[in-house]
Amino acid sequence: MGPDVLVPLSFFAMVAVICVGLPLARAHAKRMERGIDPKVLPNDLTDRLTRMEQAIDSMAVEIERISEGQRFTTKLLSERNQNGHALPMETERGV
């Protein structure tokens, strides 16, 4: 790679770094100026996150109950079909 290729590539790399790095540096400088610590969350946000966590846990329990019911129903239907009993829909259609 000669200088005729290296110089334009270096220029475009420098422009890309400036376009991405400058806004990041400004945001970091503003955060430092305001004195905001990203590790400390406000109390209302902590309360909301706690409520969300409880809601998600209760939904997970309900979904587990639904899936257990589905497994039980599937097991009953498969056992019923294996024992030679016709399924209700099959007897209605005459199949």
Order of helices and strands: HHH
How would a crystallographer describe the biggest sheet?
A: none
Strand fraction band?
Answer: under 5%
Low-confidence stretches: none
Count of DSSP strands: 0
Determine the structural class based on helices, strands and strand pairing. Answer: mainly alpha
Q: Please tally the helical runs, counting DSSP H or I stretches of 4 or more residues.
A: 3
Average per-residue pLDDT, rounded, comes to 83
Report the span from N to C terminus.
77 Å
Shape: elongated
Fraction of residues in H or I helices: over 70%
Number of domains: 2
Rounded to an integer, what's the Rg over CA atoms? 32 Å
What does this structure look like?
The chain is mainly alpha-helical. It folds into two domains: 1-38; 41-95. It contains three helices and no strands. It has helices spanning 3-34, 43-82, 88-93. The longest helix is centred in the middle third of the chain and has 40 residues, at 43-82. It is elongated, with a radius of gyration of 32 Å. The protein starts with a helix and ends with a helix. The model has no long low-confidence stretch (mean pLDDT 83).
How is the secondary structure organized here?
Blueprint: H1 3-34, H2 43-82, H3 88-93
